Amino acid sequence: MKFRSAAHNEKATARIGLWLGIAFLVCFVTGLISHAIQHPPSWFFWPSRPVNFYRITQGLHVISGVAAIPLLLAKLWSVYPKLFERPLVKSLPHALERGSILVLSGAAFFELVTGIFNVAQNYVFTFYFPAAHYAVAWVAVGSILVHIAVKLPVVRRALQRDTSPDLSRRAFLRTTWLASGVAVVATAGVTVPFLRNVSTLAWRSAKGPQGVPVNRTAAAAGVTKDPSWTLEVAGKRFTLDQLSAMPQTTADLPIACVEGWSQSASWTGVPVADVLKAAGVQPGAAVQVHSMEQNGLYRTSTLPGEHTKDPLTLLALRCNGEVLDMDHGYPCRIIAPSRPGVLQTKWVNRLEVL
Fold it and tell me: pTM of this prediction?
């Protein structure tokens, strides 16, 4: 069976594969960063400045994943005639090539499909998404490296300058770039503010209490107002009135969610460094933050010393000039620069020095 369409030409396949590889590389590296921030190995360091650093890296993670979807479909369309080649296996390199394509296709589809469901907060799967997504990412990258190693001579030849370009092949490539660009523009507004008015498929916006989206409400967390609430820090207790009487800091900081959306707000509260000093603890010590929430996966978080000494790491009491809404963590929550939203713990009642 002969496939003569320009879409199935090795030059088209190589060019789409190059851009798909770039998209996967960006997605993989930024995904590793996000995973390491949430589950830091002993050697890992993540700075607190610039304040938008995590917002940028995680935004790139989701945007590159979205861009990869039309690229992957175009790549598969370009190479699918090879499924009809006979014999099925011609040599060891040919077997490696076919095996890597099978593993790569399965891993890529898993990553992109589950990733899209995750950003939409539609958990139709029963497995724990972060662990599965992290593990399969390594499988995908490994299969990409094997595939590149096997196909490198073909890729080199295909990427050489074309002295007699095929107009239909160029049209196919331009359609692919356009589809990928439209997908990015239609969704990137979740993390790129100036695109929000044109990103028609953006899944988050400024809608929410006090103009900031909420993933987990107080009702879902089982948290209610407690008139007797106090904050325990290294054995010392602070009432809400005492925290409110301390010098307050106001900072414009983003909530940057692992699902890709982000929203800046004006937060007012007491720097964690000041609270630690008031409790007799030197800022720069790592602390474990505890929430009144009892059963959530993120009811505790670890705040590294780099953040506890940063004057913009706040025990926030107000959002956009108003007392914190219950859904935003009343009576106080952590707001730290360059941190994932899941680690900006809400309904805080204890800071445990590690």
Answer: 0.90
